Amino acid sequence: MEHPWIPNSHKAILDEMLEAIGVSSVDDLYRDIPPTILLSPEEWDSLPIGEGRPLSEAEVLARINDILSRNKYFTDPPPFVGGGVWPRYVPSVVKALITRGEFLTAYTPYQAEISQGLMQALFEYQSLVAELLEMEVVNASLYDWSSAVGEAMLMARRVTRRNRVLVPETMNPLHLETATTYAYGGGIRVEKVRVDRETGFIDLEDLESRLSQGDTAALYMEYPSSYTGVIDENVEAAGEAVHKAGGLFILGVEPVSMAILKPPGRLGADIAVGDGQPLGLGLNYGGPYLGVFAVRWDGRLVRQMPGRLIGMTVDAEGRRAFAMILQTREQHIRRAKATSNITTNEALMAIAAAVYLSLLGPQGLREVAEASWYMSHYAAKRLSELRGVEAPLLEGEFIMDFTVRLPMDAGVARRRLLEKGVLAGIPLGGFSFFSDNDMLLTVTEAHTRRHVDLLVNLLDSVLGG
């Protein structure tokens, strides 16, 4: 029987469709799905949809709003949580511009003749990020930071023809999990390098020992670390060491921090990756975010880059024009021999980042980074005044993320703060060398002194102060 809410479920229509594709029944289409989780046609009528009747638009909206009302929102104060994405203030103009019809698509502008505006916006994104990172070539986006790390590892293997990548033991576990999945498919071994327990800096002696084995394709580091917050002062020495050993240096960065830190181009990075989320994308459960990927000017590297590249040229009449370039690297040309299987990407998010960077300019971005530094250090100072709290735990300098040691289990403290309306930190128990009492806290320009004081006072009460 035809189901009122499932299109093309009438038997005559189904039979015609099945005959056209050469199968005898709907079951043939789902043969690979375990029968225990498959909904049979006989069960369609029992689907818990609506009120036993079609709903009006107003009724549907009321139902959706009821469901959404169960969500918890953290705006005052914003969450004190980072770990790879961060609470940032997003100017209203960003959403206003990227929701224009000219931009509102995630699809690739293959037909350059009718996509000049979109392509120019992506070219501007590439140019702005290249200036920020001081790297010569930037692609038009990957999915997120994790996928960018994975692609960088695969690229390093192709360039060096080696199959081992070194990472610090405090590498963001979410980035590591995804990157390791990419690496496994490429036959790459990911190996951890020791980190100093006091400073959070990479251990140069352990790094040199591992590099001496001679099969290292790349070293990956984060600057600052997205899971400890530490700005590693050994980063340049580590980069020089891996270059001396014949490997590539991959540096993961938080882009706003680059307004006040030495950028990867000046730190000797061959490949720079990161997430554009802080550049006007806000916080969303699962995204969409923006994978940043850049390389220095080297033909070996550029030819092995993943993802779209937008270039500027002139048309047959001498007018400035934009087009996708070096497409022979890509899947729609090379298929299985492409540098990556990414095609359609996060172009809309890249345009959002371009709007944000254009709006703030160099001075505005610097002010955001400085405000984050000030607020996070204010928070660390206030927290250190609480009895039994050590903040920051690691000695290395930080900008917005920092580790804290509490006199109680960090997971328990986090749950109790959540009950009081504050989402605070990431418990670090079980991660690297941290204990169950350790937590990663994040404070950015989106927080005020009032927000920090509220956190400190509530934590004091949770700790029994």
Query: Could you say what the CATH topology of the domain at 92-355 is called?
Result: Aspartate Aminotransferase, domain 2
Low-confidence segments, given as residue ranges, are none
Numbering strands along the chain, what is their spatial order in the largest sheet?
A: 1-7-6-5-4-2-3
Helix content: 25-40%
CATH architecture of the domain at 92-355: 3-Layer(aba) Sandwich
What oligomeric state do the depicted chains represent?
single chain
User: Count of helices?
Assistant: 13
Helix-strand pattern: HHHHEHEHEHEHEEEHEEHHEHEEH
Separation, N- and C-terminal Cα atoms: 67 Å
User: For this structure, what is the CATH class of the domain at 92-355?
Assistant: Alpha Beta
Mean pLDDT: 93
CA gyration radius, whole angstroms: 25 Å
Beta-strand segment tally: 12
Query: What best-fitting shape do the alpha-carbon axes yield?
Result: globular
The CATH homologous superfamily of the domain at 92-355 is termed Type I PLP-dependent aspartate aminotransferase-like (Major domain)
Beta-strand content: 5-15%
Give the structural class. Answer: alpha/beta
Largest sheet: 7 strands, mixed
Pfam family, one: GDC-P
GO molecular function: glycine dehydrogenase (decarboxylating) activity
Catalytic activity: N(6)-[(R)-lipoyl]-L-lysyl-[glycine-cleavage complex H protein] + glycine + H(+) = N(6)-[(R)-S(8)-aminomethyldihydrolipoyl]-L-lysyl-[glycine-cleavage complex H protein] + CO2
Family: Belongs to the GcvP family. N-terminal subunit subfamily.
